[in-house]
UniProtKB/TrEMBL annotation:
It comes from the Bacteria. Transmembrane segments: none annotated. This is M24 family metallopeptidase. Residues 17-88 form the Creatinase N-terminal domain. Residues 168-381 form the Peptidase M24 domain.
């Protein structure tokens, strides 16, 4: 199996990302940048890891050199994933493993070694994230040069997906669609939300691994490569409602979610479905939601601003007299994470550009009746947008157990 056939980003693209960041550091007068966010570390290096209380950081200099701060337990792991990286600052354990030295002090010493005359540093965060009981000093407290928080230097670059990233997301969409189909076909009156959701996810994962074989490269130790879930009934009026006990009943509104994960990149698919014959009220809100999503599709074009897309969707809902039932913005970018910058929101004025990936997911939420939301993965193209999630959207295709 050649590396080019494996469904993952190749080393040359990681190098190009670091070179792009190095040019930005030069432009802004920073000698180097410390990157703590696990997704940003993976984006720049290809090192995917289980983030715990043990700090990991990528250090990128203004000439593009890369080194890593890692705990001893990750030494072999990083070499397996990133054989081209050779420079490491290794600490024994958190909070010190008997060394008497906090990992952030190890990092500070490493920074002085690679840039002893540094004038200014950038970082995505001023120190490691407080997760799993981690406690530690800020990075600015252990170095003696000015530190500037500039996560935008990485996250702005992440907004435009490369052809390789788009290919991975396109593949992820196909498996999210497949997981949703398995789940929809398995739902009957009395079905349990959790059992059907997990059963469909597991079967979709089996199908995915069988079809892709050695091309599939896992990038996480938790979760499944293909996933689907749903919530039901009046609970769907909560945009992020939790699962509840009890079985599916005739008359229920179902709001679903499904996605695939390929090469560390995600897709997004959500649908509103009905059990049995929907009522006139259910149909009314479903059709209005569908029109709002169509408006979002049409508005997503290069040169427009995120806020303009949101405004067009809101204008349509206002015309329908349903703006009060909309509880969130129209969508968000995503890729390596389920939500990424920028957002289709009235206060996000980021200009859209070809290569961006967005969800379009306007929702209507009616207490006592239910929630109504479709979500699709869209790629901004040079002249508009392309829908990558291809699951049916129409009412007739989303009815369960109809007599």
């Amino acid at each position: 199996m050649t590396a080019s056939l494996r469904l993952e980003i190749q080393p040359a693209e990681y190098r190009a990302r670091r070179e792009h960041l190095a040019r930005a550091l030069q432009q802004h007068g920073y000698d180097l940048m410390c990157v703590f966010g696990p997704t940003r570390v993976a984006y720049l290096t290809g090192f995917f890891f289980a983030a715990t209380e043990r700090p990991v950081a990528a250090i990128i200099t203004d000439d593009g050199e890369c080194s890593l701060l890692i705990p001893q337990l990750e030494s072999d792991h990083v070499r397996q994933q990133c054989p081209e990286l050779v420079n490491f600052a290794v600490y024994p354990e958190y909070p010190g493993g008997g060394s008497g030295q906090h990992p952030l002090l190890t990092l500070a010493a490493h920074l002085r070694t690679i840039r002893p005359s540094a004038r200014a540093l950038a970082a995505d965060l001023d120190g490691y994230e407080h997760r799993w009981g981690y406690r530690g000093p800020k990075l600015s407290q252990v170095i003696d040069v000015p530190l500037h928080e500039r996560l935008d230097l990485i996250d702005d670059a992440r907004t435009i997906k490369s052809s390789a990233e788009i290919a991975l997301i396109r593949e992820a969409c196909a498996w999210g669609d497949h997981a949703h189909r398995l789940m929809q076909d398995a739902i009957t009156q009395g079905s349990d939300e959790l059992l059907v959701s997990h059963g469909a996810s597991l079967q979709a994962t089996r199908d995915m691994l069988s079809a892709l074989g050695d091309r599939y490269v896992p990038k996480a130790r938790e979760g499944l490569p293909a996933n689907a879930m749903f919530i039901r009934g009046h609970n769907t009026a909560n945009p992020h409602g939790l699962h509840q006990q009890g079985g599916v009943q005739v008359g229920d509104t179902l709001v679903t979610g499904a996605y695939g994960v390929v090469g560390g990149y995600e897709s997004e698919l959500e649908r509103t479905m009905f059990v049995g014959e929907p009522t006139s009220e259910q149909i009314k809100y479903f059709q209005a939601m569908l029109e709002a999503q169509d408006a979002g599709f049409a508005a997503l074009k290069p040169g427009r601003r995120c806020s303009e897309v949101e405004q067009e969707v809101r204008d349509l809902l206002k015309e329908r007299g349903m703006l009060a039932q909309a509880r969130h913005h129209t969508g968000h970018a995503f890729g390596m994470e389920g939500h990424e910058h920028p957002f289709l929101d009235l206060d996000d004025h980021t200009e859209l550009a070809a290569g961006m990936i967005f969800s379009i997911e306007p929702g209507l939420y009616v207490p006592g009746l239910g929630g109504f939301r479709h979500s699709d993965t869209l790629l901004v193209t040079p002249d508009g947008a392309e829908r990558l999630s291809l699951y049916p959207r129409d009412l007739e295709s989303l009815l369960i157990g109809r007599a």
